[in-house]
Design brief:
Number of helices: 3
Largest sheet: 2 strands, antiparallel
Shape: elongated
Strand content: 5-15%
Radius of gyration: 21 Å
Structural class: mainly alpha
Amino acid sequence: MQQHEIGRRTYLIANVAPLDVDGVRTLAVGTAIWFAAFIGLLPFYGSLEASGRLWWLWTCAAGTGLGAWGWDYCRRRRRNRLAGREPRH
């Protein structure tokens, strides 16, 4: 445990490892939630269209697509980091 003194205050900082360094698990769970919401809204297509809320369905589709892209990106980034390769800029 580290101890920092700033002014008249003392801060104790625990040595805790981060939970998800590369974001792969976070993106996988988030993408699965967006996909489940999309599938859950599909039976209500007609009522969503009639009420002017069809954008809910397409928001879930966009969340699924962007999440899948981000998940692939983070997986490649983790693979490169573990292989010791420098990130491309």
